[in-house]
Design a protein that fits this description.
TIM Barrel, six-stranded parallel sheet, 10 strands, 34% helix, binds zinc ion
Length: 317
Amino acid sequence: MSARFVLSLDVEGLWGLFFVRSYVERPDAALAGRAALPRLAREIAERGVRATFAFVGHLLLDRCGPWDGLAHPELPRPAYPWYDRDWYDDDPGGDESSAPLWYARSQVAACRAHGHEIGAHGFAHAILDTTCVPREVAVAEFAQAQRAAADADLPPLRSFVFPQNVVGHEDALAAAGFTCYRDADLGRPARAGPPGGMGRAARLAAHAVAAAPWVGTPRVRDDGVVVVPSSFPLLGREGVRRLVPRAARAARIEKGLERAAREDAVLHVWSHPHAFADEAAFDDLREALDRVAAWCARGDARALTMGALAEEARRGA
Ligand SMILES: [Zn+2]
Ligand SMILES: [Zn+2]
């Protein structure tokens, strides 16, 4: 049996960060993500891996606005107990040249040129927490992401990555044309809200000791949408994350591939472009992907995009 390996990247500009205001006041992370993305696309492809780059749909727009009052007034907005502004308050109503952290259509070309899959990460990165977000918001997020992709001359998007890995209203994906989504890590529901907090220290420790990661198998739902299992995030080197040594990071990938091969399962790792803010982070990635490439060269693993994995699962179902 061979292991299956999937790598997905959440591309979000400031859309995935604005609800923590310090990221807007000092947009270093979003700037780093934008700078890293073309190189990321190239270096991943050079190791024979095709990844799924899940873009926030708004990034695919050529432009929007200018807005006189609320931005995108026709769209339903999510509201959360932890956020007191309108979800589109920061929308600059411009284009990629005036506001490159809110529009990034040109970056799609870099990904496609290397054969990567383009997926969706919402339209405005609404976190689809069903305790407070109604279905109409999810329906709009799914449909507007597809509309933005079509407007950017992309084929219909197949793969969806839920903002903050909070899976909600997933039964509305099929009608919007999606064939799969990334499940929360370990198949355990993720907590909705601003980043941080519980569980982080425990997760970091698992990286540091290179604990054998969880691997899963795709599941085809009754509506044909494939639930793509997810293992763990590839860490950047921000803050305490830099304490996780490169050898431990690579060993974790290796253990994941071993386990996936043994269990006929999928090792699926994911990250954000802004995690690759320096050379050390790129070195980590190269080391990890070299391991994957070696497995693939021996015929012991196959690297697949989310969409391709889902297609196989649907054919086999
Ligand atoms: Zn807009
Ligand atoms: Zn995100």
